[in-house]
Amino acid sequence: MTAMKKGDKDHGQYVRKVQEETLRHSKDLLAENERLRTRVVSLEGEVAALELERPRLVGELDRVREDLRRHQALQQELKQKLELSQAEGLRYSESYLGIERQNANLANLYVASYRLHGTLDREELYLAIQEILSNLIGCDEHPVTQVTYDDASAFASWAGKVLPTEAEWEYAARGGLEGSIFAWGDEFEPHGRHMANTWQGTFPWQNLCLDGFEGTSPVSSFPANGFGLFDMTGNVWEWTLDWFAEYPPGDLKDPVGPAQGVYKVFRGGSWNHAVEFARSRNRFMMPPTNGIYFVGFRLALGHKVP
Ligand SMILES: [Ca+2]
């Protein structure tokens, strides 16, 4: 055996160390290669599956695009309908104003005729007044109608109260049921029960009176809502404090009417209008100087001045 020098010994140790590290590195590379190969196989499988799914996904994308296009068209159509219905509402109010003017003209003609011909003696005048009063017999519990907004507002001031704003009225109408269609919920006739006085039948010639009333009904003929308020739906519309203006789109919290306007808003539907007018959110309007046989009012306590 040849005696090993120190330099030879160090060199042998260095070579073994390099061999061990190379072997370990080689094993690591093998493991990493195996992992990568497995990953390649997996990804190839996913790509193949996606390729198979591609026609279905493209088809679904086309369908969703088509649905979106259809919904956008529908939304546009509904917007136009809404604008038309609001314009129709204004025309409707104008037509009532025309009828009121005609009635006023007829009344003036009537009085003028009596004055001209002198046919109204004391007895006839008494009978005429009795006839007018007889229409009110038995109506003590019915809501007042034929009052203008100005009348209602003057009465409220005299009584130390106010007319409710639209927002206050709508909040009161729902009786604590947030977003409900009517004062008692979403179903107009729950379990077939009439909950309000509206018009049934084909307006204006067929008044079926299925709710038991041909005209106005005594207040509290139907159940109160959650706040204990009667007739928030139907019977007579009710003047509110607000001037009319179209609401902007989207949800609104306590919207306030404009400072000035042409029409005052009334709410709630009436015995003279079908169910679709009776929704708590529905609005109608006419000039504040108009009084008509299906519009009345109710008072609110008003705001306390600090
Ligand atoms: Ca009725």
Oligomer: single chain
Q: Termini, distance in Å?
A: 116 Å
- The count of domains is 3
Computed Rg: 40 Å
What is the β-strand count?
4
Q: Ranges with pLDDT <50 over ≥5 residues?
A: none
Q: Which second-level CATH architecture of the largest domain applies? A: Alpha-Beta Complex
Identify the strand order in the major beta sheet: 3-2-1-4
Question: Helix count, per DSSP?
Answer: 4
H/E element order: HHHHEEEE
What's the gist of this structure?
This protein has 306 residues and is mostly helical.
Characterize the structure shown.
This protein is mainly alpha-helical and 306 residues long. It has 3 domains: 15-44; 85-137; 142-296, paralog of FGE (formylglycine-generating enzyme), CATH 3.90.1580. The protein is built from 4 helices and 4 strands; from the N terminus they run ααααββββ. It has a 4-stranded mixed sheet with strand order 3-2-1-4. It is elongated. It starts with 5 loop residues before the first helix and ends in a 10-residue tail after the last strand. The mean pLDDT is 85. It binds calcium ion. Calcium ion binds at residues 197-199, 209, 211, 213, 271.
